[in-house]
Write a structure and sequence with these properties.
By secondary structure, the chain is of the alpha+beta class. The chain contains 6 helices and 13 strands. The strands form 3 sheets. It has a 6-stranded mixed beta sheet. A hairpin with a 2-residue loop joins strand 6 and strand 7.
């Protein structure tokens, strides 16, 4: 598996192209603004884009979907009915074989009601659930507490060396977040 990072500089949103090196199938996680560089990478390396995974329904995480649909034929996976076109709605947790890769997913609401985290190999794609040093914004103290509880039970139960590739900012690891995440360590004091 190869992972390529693309950044939408206008919104500072991360987009990831994940490639199965054996089958040359690819998927995109959170198609923010679609750049010429992303399209060129898919075309030049002759990748077959088979799926798009959305972490949550905030425009900066899916706004490139319309552009991609004009170029490629693929399946969209999301927790939101509208984004998934009523076909591939992800709920709770599970595993799907996508692009020849085992894609684990689990619901982790708090930043948004439809937040989904994807795990491929030893990499987590967290959208706006958790970032390097902090967590996603919440609408109130109750949802923030719920989000922190979900992160601790679902994410922090994984190996410390699991890589976190968030929707914004640099990548991190579970071990680093256990040690240094300001929001999660502040919750311990409450």
């Amino acid at each position: 598996m190869k992972i390529y990072h693309h950044l939408d500089f206008a919104k500072l949103t991360n987009c990831y192209l994940v490639v199965n090196e054996i089958t040359k199938e690819a998927l995109i996680i959170d198609p923010c603004k679609i750049s010429n560089a992303l399209i060129a990478q898919i075309e030049q390396d002759k990748y077959n884009l088979v799926a798009v995974l959305i972490t949550h329904k905030h425009t900066n995480h899916y706004r490139g979907l319309k552009t991609l649909r004009k170029i490629y034929d693929f399946t969209v996976y999301a927790a939101d009915n509208e984004l998934a076109s009523g076909m591939n709605i992800l709920k709770d947790e599970g595993v799907k074989k996508i692009a020849g890769l085992n894609v684990e997913y689990f619901s982790l609401p708090g930043h948004s009601a439809d937040s989904i985290v994807y795990k491929i190999g030893s990499v987590l794609f967290t959208g706006d659930v958790i970032f390097a040093g902090t967590i996603g914004s919440s609408s109130c103290s109750y949802t923030k507490k719920h989000l922190c509880k979900g992160i601790k039970s679902k994410i922090f139960s994984m190996n410390d060396d699991t890589v976190i590739m968030p929707g914004h900012g640099p990548m991190t690891s579970i071990g680093a977040e256990k040690e240094f995440n300001l929001d999660l360590n502040a919750q311990v004091l409450l």
